[in-house]
Specification:
The complex is a heterodimer of chains A (about 300) and B (about 525).
Chain A (H helix, E strand, L loop, with lengths): L1 H34 L10 E2 L5 H4 L1 E2 L6 H5 L3 H32 L3 H16 L2 H12 L5 H7 L16 H27 L2 H9 L4 H26 L6 H5 L9 H4 L2 H12 L2 H29 L7
Antiparallel strand pairs in A: 1-2
Chain B lengths: L1 H55 L13 E8 L4 H19 L1 E8 L1 H14 L5 E4 L6 H6 L7 H6 L3 H6 L9 E2 L2 E2 L2 E2 L9 E5 H6 L10 H14 L49 H15 L14 H6 L5 E4 L6 H9 L3 E5 L4 E2 L1 H4 L2 E4 L6 H13 L1 H9 L7 E4 L4 E3 L26 E2 L6 H10 L2 E2 L13 H19 L12 H10 L2 H18 L2
Parallel strand pairs in B: 1-2, 10-15, 13-14
Antiparallel strand pairs in B: 3-11, 4-5, 6-11, 7-8, 7-9, 12-13
Helix pairs in contact in B: 1-2, 13-14, 16-17
The chains are: A mainly alpha (about 300), B mainly alpha (about 525).
Chain lengths: ~300, ~525
């Protein structure tokens, strides 16, 4: 059995060798860039010493991981990371699809180009610039919300950077604003690929515009939605460092709602610069992400096998 | 068969590509190297006459110019444009070529990415010989224990570093020593802890305020009150960075922004390590800051403000800034940076701690030839010509003499700080006192430094370096707690006795995360150190 499989593999290679040759540079790149550095993962279990090198450093077991769980904040940072990411995935997907469908309904090609460009711009803006845009709204002294809205209404200004309450909403809004353009373009690209005949058939059957979206467009997007969601689930233990560090201006009183695994590790290791511990944090994040992707994929495979990633 | 053929073909292809790229980089280097040595051998010929006298100072020993060629790579803080930095390196190489047959490679890294770049160079095994062990977020103890710096005791006491060894104060060496070995040459800069404020003298004069009479924080508060009254739109106290904690403590190696265990009053002679944030002094300080913020002395957005104090004072939106910068020339420097006359006031007696003395120049663990690196470092410390090439760059391009007799310099015409292309941080080079004097600074500024450094109280822990490796988990957790609360409290943004972010919560969370363990460990190491060094 195994032998026959090998045989067919060789036969396939023989037949399609130009194609294999073409993938080779990519595979080599992947190996050098993504697989060779994995030896660095051993750092998570070592007390790194530059003179002894990565392989020669002393092995200290799981000691580097302790700091992630020993703190009282372990629960808060894990909760913040996961819950924010879940909200980003759900709202982000809904919002991006809505925009993609709206784009698809725009008739004028010129207008569509304009909208596409405009929605993409926030994605290109650096997060540091975004943090100052947010600051222009939120600054206690000169900010638009305090000076332009609250005070003219006779209400007292809010010191936004010391009030944790509104920040979950602010962060979600900023993230949506920044990322919806990019995702909606991916969905829009899929939409364009849905054959026009389905729509024509639906129109012939008397489907309303809403029904066309519900029964033609959304099912057509299903594969893309699942792929993108699975990929975001793999990153659920990572947080967008810029968003959680720059946008709240690293303001201490907000930490209960803005501290995530990445910002925690950054702030903690700023003081002692321990490579082993940062490697451990990264290792932990990737392992959890890996397990989550495998699980999610297995679930998808159970429910609708043709849409699973692998 | 065909497959094998194909495989070998592909391997050959890949190897050719990688060889080509390897050749590309190495031939590039060779070109640089030969170009540099070309110019320097020419100039070595020209210079041999003029250099002769210069070299006499170090003569009387074996001729080092016949050594194997070697390149010393130096990494240095603050910006420099590539072409100017290359020119500086070439000029420096002229001197070191003639003397040691050593070429200099200089890399300058801006403040923003300094810590990252140096850490990367130290840990990645990249070639690096000399660097200032300063502002890189890890103490000398950490660098030593991870093998990122090399001991230099032997070179200093019996080898090519003898001259430098003789020039540095005996007592300062213990600040860069660890387990009996010296790991760095302390920068010859201001070494005192001074807690005070820089004030806009023009405004003080206009309001008839006598700044010389200001001796305490309370006096200072009154001054701020008067300024606020006269200029209601001004927030008198600038809050550029985290407002400094005005308590004369010895942080025992910690950065002032995150103090986990300290001698709260370093001038008192007490050797009890305490949690600074739980001390009465800290409570008093943050209550005062909150009071000031309520009175409008500190801007309400202090936490998210990123404007520098210098800019705020220049723009007239602030009157003063707390500072902990030690120096006889601070007034001159700040006056230049702020564009107004700056007057310093000081709140406490000067005192010396390991933290101010320990910034030093070290030999990187990756150095291929530490002895050759030490030769250059010694020359940087003792040779005025070389020191000034490194510090100020190229005469006529980045600086020019205003008064050659007194060695006073300024920018050439049409050049200023924004376009010189080479940043001056004379204090961050090994020996600032070798450098020329900037116009506007006192001509005898370096003599003033000598007197300044000689005075002051010595902290009882002077020379002690803390090794935090046994309490890393606690340090990581507590660092997070400190960044959560300290800045807000220090800037008076939150009420220390209020419901959100109060001082009580701060202390409680620190204790929950094991500050007591850190304090106890610090105390243990300090006691041991005191016993061994008394």
């Amino acid at each position: 059995m195994v032998k026959r499989k090998r045989g067919t593999f060789l036969k396939v290679v023989k037949r399609f060798w130009p194609l294999y040759l073409m993938t080779l540079p990519g595979l080599v790149y992947l190996f050098i860039n993504n697989y060779m550095p994995m030896f660095g993962l051993t750092l998570a279990f070592k007390q790194y010493n530059a003179r002894k090198g990565i392989l020669g450093s002393d092995f200290i077991g799981l000691k580097n991981f302790e700091f992630l769980f020993k703190t009282k904040d372990a629960w808060i940072i894990t909760r913040n990371t996961v819950v924010y990411n879940l909200v980003f995935i759900i709202l982000g997907t809904v919002f991006a699809i809505t925009v993609a469908i709206l784009l698809n309904e725009v008739r004028s090609a010129f207008a569509r180009k304009i909208y596409q460009t405009v929605t993409l711009i926030p994605f290109i803006v650096s997060i540091v610039v975004v943090s100052y845009l947010a600051n222009a709204f939120l600054s206690a002294d000169t900010g638009f919300i305090n000076k332009g809205i609250l005070e003219p209404l006779g209400k007292e200004g809010i010191s936004w950077y010391t009030t944790p309450g509104p920040w979950p909403v602010i962060l979600v809004l900023v993230n949506l604003w920044k990322n919806f353009g990019y995702n909606s373009i991916i969905y829009y690209a899929t939409l364009v690929g849905i054959s026009i005949e389905y729509y024509e058939a639906a129109v012939v059957d008397g489907a309303t515009r809403w029904q066309r979206i519900r029964y033609v467009t959304l099912p057509g997007l299903k594969a893309t939605i699942i792929t993108l969601t699975l990929m975001s689930i793999g990153k659920i233990f990572y947080s967008d460092f810029g968003l959680f560090y720059q946008v709240p201006m690293n303001s201490g009183p907000l930490f209960d709602v803005t501290n995530t695994i990445d910002t925690y590790v950054f702030r903690g290791l700023l003081q002692n610069n321990n490579i082993g511990m940062s490697a451990a944090a990264g290792f932990y994040q990737s392992i959890v992400g890996f397990v989550l992707v495998i699980t999610a994929n297995a679930i998808v495979k159970k429910i609708s096998p043709e849409n699973a990633l692998y | 068969m065909k497959f094998k053929k194909l495989l070998s073909l592909v391997i050959v292809g890949v190897m050719t590509v990688s060889m080509l790229s390897a050749c590309g980089s190495s031939s590039g280097n060779a070109e640089d190297g030969s170009a540099a040595s070309g110019t320097s051998s020419e100039s070595a010929a020209d210079d041999s006459n003029t250099e002769g006298t210069e070299a006499d100072t170090g003569a009387g020993e074996e001729d080092l110019s016949q050594q194997e060629p070697y390149t010393v790579k130096i990494m240095m803080l603050d910006d420099g444009e590539t072409d100017i930095v290359e020119e500086v390196a070439a000029a420096a190489s002229e001197i070191t070529q003639a003397k040691f047959n050593t070429t200099i490679e200089l890399v300058r890294v801006g403040w923003g990415s300094w810590a990252e770049q140096v850490t990367l160079a130290l840990t990645s095994g990249e070639k690096l010989d000399l660097f200032p062990a300063f502002a890189i977020n890890s103490s000398l103890a950490t660098l030593v224990s991870s093998g990122e710096v090399l001991p230099m005791t032997d070179y200093l006491k019996n080898g090519c570093g003898k001259e430098t060894y003789a020039m540095v104060d005996e007592e300062d060496w213990i600040c860069t020593s660890y387990d009996g070995e010296i790991y760095g040459i302390p920068m010859n800069k201001g070494k005192q802890n001074v807690y005070g404020a820089a004030c806009n003298k023009d405004i003080a004069d206009e309001l008839g305020i006598d700044l010389d009479a200001v001796k305490t924080l309370d006096d200072f508060g009154e001054v701020l009150g008067k300024v606020k009254e006269a200029y209601p739109n001004m927030y008198p106290l600038a809050t550029s960075q985290a407002l400094r904690v005005m308590i004369p403590s010895d942080t025992l190696g910690d950065d002032r922004t995150c103090v986990l265990g300290a001698l709260v009053d370093a001038t008192s002679g007490s050797t009890t390590v305490e949690n600074l944030y739980a001390s009465d002094e800290y409570r008093e300080f943050v209550e005062k800051m909150y009071d000031w913020a309520q009175k409008g002395y500190i801007m309400p957005d202090a936490l998210s403000n990123t404007e520098t104090a210098q800019n705020m004072i220049r723009a007239g939106s602030a009157f003063a800034d707390f500072y902990t910068g030690p120096a006889p020339d601070t007034e001159a420097r700040l006056s230049r940076e702020c564009g107004v006359t700056i007057k310093d006031i000081e709140f406490f007696e000067h005192y010396k701690t390991t933290g101010e003395t320990a910034p030093c120049w070290s030999i990187a663990g990756n150095s291929e030839n530490p002895e050759r690196a030490m030769q250059v470092l010694n020359e940087m410390y003792t040779n005025q010509e070389l020191a000034n090439i490194f510090i100020y760059g190229i005469e006529g391009k980045t600086f020019e003499f205003v008064d050659k007799a007194n060695k006073v310099i300024n920018y050439p015409d049409g050049v200023d700080a924004t376009n010189a292309g080479y940043a001056f941080d004379h204090w961050a080079w090994p020996n600032m006192c070798m450098s020329y004097v900037w116009e506007g600074y006192p001509v005898d500024v370096y003599e003033q430094y000598v007197t300044f450094n000689a005075g002051g109280v010595l902290s009882p822990a002077y020379g002690f370096t803390f090794d935090n490796s046994s309490v890393l988990n606690e340090v990581t957790a507590c660092s997070n707690v400190v960044s959560k609360y300290a800045e807000a409290l220090n800037t008076g943004s939150v009420d220390p006795n209020g419901s959100s972010g109060s001082l009580e919560q701060f202390i409680q969370e620190l204790e929950d995360n094991g500050i007591d363990k850190i304090v106890a460990e610090k105390q243990r190491q300090l006691d041991e150190w005191l016993a061994a060094n008394s």
